[in-house]
Amino acid sequence: MFMKNLNILLTCVGGLFSVETIRMMKSDVDFAIRVIGVDANPATPNRFFADRFYSVPLAKSDPTRFIQELLLISQKESTQIILPGSDEEAFELSKNKKQFEERGIRCAVDSFETIRLLRDKFECFSFLKNKGIDVPMVYDVSTVDALPTLAVRMGYPEKRFIIKPKMSRGARNIFFVDSRATAPHSPNQQRESRWCDLDTLLTEYRERIRAGECMAMEYVPGPSYDVDCIASQGQVLCVLPRKREWPDEFSSFNQGCLPENNGKIQNLIAEIAQALSLNTIFDFDCGTRENGLPGLYEINPRMSGSIASCRAGNVNLLNILFRYLLNMPIPVVEFQYGKRMIPVLQMIFQ
Length: 350
What we know:
With 350 residues, the chain is of the alpha/beta class. It folds into three domains: 4-109, 3-Layer(aba) Sandwich (Rossmann fold), CATH 3.40.50.20; 115-133 and 221-325, ATP-grasp fold, B domain (D-amino Acid Aminotransferase, Chain A, domain 1, 2-Layer Sandwich); 138-218, no CATH class. The protein is built from ten helices and 15 strands. A hairpin with a 5-residue loop joins strand 14 and strand 15 (294-300). Helix 3 (87-95) runs antiparallel to helix 5 (112-119). The longest helix has 14 residues, at 63-76. The chain is globular, with a radius of gyration of 20 Å.
């Protein structure tokens, strides 16, 4: 069987599950894939799993050099597709997409306008709400003194709510405001999240709430999901909800997932994709609201770091993505359910 040669540049190759992402690409039955890995850490052990490795600047701290380095590496290695592993990289690649496309390089990112909207969670949720999409309540924290009034709107003290930056990713710098919290504690110290009551928030952590940069958000208490989605012009090509099997939804370490045939989540993602006219690949984070309906946490404009978990559903989502980017026919996707992904540590010998 003829296999098309593909040179894929994978960023953030030092990520926790990047080795599994590489293995999934290498197992592709349609493409003979050569992986060029890049990362800001020149000593990442994961570099040994890539066919070639380069250290590059962080897109967040030096976006100009990041793009310049990727252009040089892509030309040197005859790269055909770039897969970003972080929101900041996706943002910069979308901004400079034309430079890569002129050189025949496809970036797995949506338009700059779309990613700019997704980047601001408050604007994104407001946009979706105006489109008639049922998303959790959000309010702009224009001043810290307005928080007590916003808390009442969110149902506090009977209900919990969240204070989070409008622009951030993952469970970073989040305050879970709960009147039953007897003492402030950190469910996720690595990402600087805190659980406390409103009085503690307004006294001990007041300086960390930047007016105009934060939003209040409805707390979504039920089971959490990572949802892989590939879309074209707002139409979903495939959607795979993966239920997180973590001790809590704020854990910084993935303890596994279970692909789930969840029609409510699939329908919500399809509605959002159409409203935003999404293209390429996305990582949706969702929870379950008190009424049993899914509640959106955020939309990451790139593939999930744990995308290789889709193999538990007996599907290689990156194969579908590559076909989409290369304008090749896309097969009907049929996921299998019931098999878990359980992460383990491993050794390498070099």
